[in-house]
Design a protein that fits this description.
56 residues; alpha+beta; 2 helices; 25% strand; elongated
Amino acid sequence: MLLHLIGEARARGYAQLSLETGSGGPFEPALGYIANTGSPTADRSQTIPMTRSAPS
């Protein structure tokens, strides 16, 4: 799903993408997956906003 959204952003000419998720144990698999796509993470608080440049 994330890779599809990145592709859509590319097709639409978006400059950046943002995603926010929870933190902690239940979210660790998602956070790892998102980090592996080249998305930087903020400090780990209750929620984690992530922003990346949209691929051109």
